[in-house]
Amino acid sequence: DTEVKSPNGHVISARITAENAEDGFIPCGGCLRQLNFRSSKNIWGYFSVHAEGKLHKHADSQFGHLFSWGHTREEARKGMVLALKELSIHGEIRTTIDFLVNVMEHPIFLKNGSHVEWLDNLKDEDNFFNKPDIK
């Protein structure tokens, strides 16, 4: 027999992709010069490429995945926002990191009111693609 465990806490995950969110999430390729990510007790991730690696624009654009666990959804969300803001990727590629931070800091996401149609309409909001403030 296996013990059935009750859910414990919340996890938010984020796909790290080589895509240009401002241009319809078009995949892009190129060389990386730097990729720095620090895991912690409740935040972890993995990447399929390393600093000085290369991404091909015709391959799968996802090259990383981050996870944030918290006792509450808000705790997990705050951890993910911090992880995304601290993730350092430099090179010839564009990523969706700023887009993900903007989504997770949006008032509708904060109220747990997000859905697919809402996501589709975000690109029409003024200043949505501005780089988020580092706090």
Automatic annotation (TrEMBL):
TM ranges: none
GO molecular function list: acetyl-CoA carboxylase activity; ATP binding
GO BP annotations, alphabetical order: fatty acid biosynthetic process
The keyword Ligase is assigned to this record: yes
SUPFAM superfamilies (UniProt xref): Rudiment single hybrid motif (SSF51246)
Keywords for the protein's UniProt record, in alphabetical order: ATP-binding, Ligase, Nucleotide-binding
Keyword Ligase: yes
Domain Biotin carboxylation: 1-124
Protein name: Acetyl-CoA carboxylase 2 (Trinotate prediction)
Organism listed in the record: Myxobolus squamalis (Myxosporean)
Lineage of the species this protein comes from: Eukaryota, Metazoa, Cnidaria, Myxozoa, Myxosporea
